[in-house]
Amino acid sequence: MENKEMGTPPLIPSREGRLQLTLLLTTLSSAFGSAFQYGYNIAVVNTPHKVFKTFYNETYFERHATFMDEKLMLLLWSCTVSMFPLGGLLGSLIVGLLVDSCGRKGTLLINDIFAIVPAILMGVCKVAKAFELIIFSRVVLGVCAGISYSALPMYLGELAPKNLRGMLGTMTEVFVIVGVFLAQIFSLQAILGNPAALRRLRGHADIEAELEDMHAEARAERAEGHLSVLRLCALRPQRWQLLSIIVLMAGQQLSGINAINYYADTIYTSAGVEAADSQYVTVGAGVVNIVMTVISAVLVERLGRRILLLAGYGICGSACLVLTAVILFQNRVPELSYLGIICVFAYIAGHSIGPSPVPSVVRTEIFLQSSRRAAFMVDGAVHWFTNFIVGFLFPSIQEAIGAYSFIIFAGICLLTAVYIYVVIPETKGKTFVEINRIFAKINRVEIPEEKKEETIDERRNVGPPVPSPAKETSF
């Protein structure tokens, strides 16, 4: 109500949500039960790779009375590593069906089956003397990771108020990194759907403004219709959003992070670190990974998404170039091996501040609910296919061209950064509908529900909407 004596305008209720205990526990439990599994199984085969290879060789000898040659061992080990992202690709292709039929929460619960079964199989593989169980289990674990990597950001992004969406969105990557770190530690040789639900998650009684945002998104969804993957790929209003998540996810994987995760010990050895000490360097890199990802979760709502992405890719690309020079010249200058370790740590810090966590936030924000399921299927397929390519081909590429393999990663970092600078707008502090309007201008299409939005604002008697200032891009 207007204050007639003071002549002040009517107060607009605050739309800033707080991190309530229910929302915090929901985030932590869902992330630990899903994203953690992904991270753990990325890194768990790195340090003990010699143990795995010894088991493969012993089993092969018992069957054929001869040991494997080096080429067969390289092929078998590449399959062991790359079956995980291949399973992730399969998981990303079925996640759409699961979230439609079981819901986000139900999908995350069902996904636990794909974590428990392979754990049992890997536990009995030595007794059964069957290394094939390890490879099969890696496929099933990949399915678990593929489902969780799409379903979890979708779940958290829709639970979070817009001012916390960036921070909660990065929790997917935070728990992936925690999983990677604990895998490194254990590998050491020495060691809701209604306003009552919203009040529990938000902790404040005045949620009408946020409900209005949800209704606006629902109206936009009805106007757009439910989208399949094929229709999404052919739809002009979604063209640049779709291309953006493809670039973000391909850049995230092809920039070299999983080459570091899968083959860290080998890289440290080639950089001059003693084989017995490389496992401890890997743990140190894990600490850097966790710290920088947590810092990113704090900064993403202050600095925005674009700055973290651009800074991260800049650091990664520079680190790859310097690491190439270090590996090439360390035989002449042995002291360069220490610079090589610094480069790896700098690369991990750069990737953890932007390219690793931020795409999980952006991919949720740039799609409405009607297209989010199909978009996450495309996103997941790109993520896991490129993950598979790196895991399977990097050993052969490194053997063929040696240190120059990191120049490829540097080039990909540069190209991805250029795309982000030119095309992707800042999404910090904006509702899903506001972000949809920004991309509508980029796609040069009109939003059919805008007139209805203005009618709602008039009914609420708060005046015309004041759009959030969108960061201009060169595009």
Keywords:
475 residues, mainly alpha, 20 helices, 0% strand, globular, disordered C terminus
Would you kindly provide a written description of the structure presented here, covering whatever features stand out?
The chain is an all-alpha fold. 75% of the residues lie in helices and 0% in strands. The protein contains 20 helices and no strands. The protein has helices at residues 21-32, 35-43, 49-64, 70-110, 113-128, 132-159, 165-169, 171-186, 195-202, 208-224, 229-234, 239-270, 275-299, 305-329, 336-353, 358-365, 369-401, 405-422, 432-443, 450-460. It is globular, with a radius of gyration of 24 Å. The two termini are 44 Å apart. The relative contact order is 0.13. Mean pLDDT is 77; it is low at 1-14 and 450-475.
Question: In summary, what is this structure?
Answer:
The protein has 475 residues and is an all-alpha fold. The protein has helices at 21-32, 35-43, 49-64, 70-110, 113-128, 132-159, 165-169, 171-186, 195-202, 208-224, 229-234, 239-270, 275-299, 305-329, 336-353, 358-365, 369-401, 405-422, 432-443, 450-460.
Helix coverage percent of residues?
over 70%
Structural class: mainly alpha
Please count the beta strands (DSSP E, at least 2 residues each).
0
Main sheet: strands, sense, barrel: none
* Regions with little confidence, pLDDT below 50 for 5+ residues: 1-14, 450-475
Mind telling me the C-alpha Rg?
24 Å
What percent of residues are in strands?
under 5%
* Count of helical regions: 20
Q: Estimate the global geometry from the Cα principal axes.
A: globular
